[in-house]
Amino acid sequence: MRAEERRQAIRELLQNSKQPVSASALAARFAVSRQIIVGDIALLRAAGAEISATPRGYVILRETAGLVRQVAVQHDAAGMEAELNAMVDQGCTVLDVIVEHPIYGQLTGPLQLVSRYDVAQFLARCSQPDARPLSELTEGIHLHTLSCPDEAAFDRVRQELRRLGVLLEG
């Protein structure tokens, strides 16, 4: 398979997948190295493909159903699990995390967390020795973009974050 054909096949696979696909899985499928896949993804992005790297693999982001809202929160590393579970338990998807960096400005990390399982997988990655969440750059202050089924779900998220003492309100 030529490189162009492989990139087109990767794009189609991601468009049709309901779950993130890891670089390792793509490498095994196309019998190339993981680094070749990383390069293919970079070239697809440069050509305009809206491919995001999430903690569980690559996805092509689709139109978000429901309401899209943001919450500002602050907590230490110990509060991360309760915060994320509070969001997914109300039926919301945690789309990303956003921090303000003094040099680079806004930094956004795609998350796409839908369930407690997703949260547990994300926390497992955060516990690796060379991994740190973006919120460590800002003394725990960060935003999350949420996709919620309705305003009531978003209100429940805010209520639960308030109960946990992590919601920043102005």
The ordered H/E elements are HHHEEEHEEHEH
- Backbone structural class: alpha+beta
What does the overall shape look like?
A: elongated
Fourth-level CATH superfamily of the largest domain: 3H domain
CATH class of the largest domain: Alpha Beta
* Count of folded domains: 2
CATH topology of the largest domain: Histidine-containing Protein, Chain: A
Spans of 5+ residues with little confidence (pLDDT < 50)? none
Mind describing the biggest β-sheet?
Answer: 4 strands, antiparallel
Strand tally is 6
Q: What is the alpha-carbon Rg in Å?
A: 17 Å
Strand content: 15-25%
| Mean pLDDT value | 88
**Helix proportion:** 40-55%
First-to-last CA distance? 56 Å
Order of strands across the biggest sheet?
A: 3-6-4-5
Secondary structure elements and pairings:
Layout: H1 3-16, H2 23-30, H3 34-46, E1 51-54, E2 57-60, E3 67-74, H4 80-88, E4 93-101, E5 105-113, H5 116-126, E6 141-148, H6 151-164
Antiparallel strand pairs: 1-2, 3-6, 4-5, 4-6
Helix pairs in contact: 1-3, 2-3, 4-5, 4-6
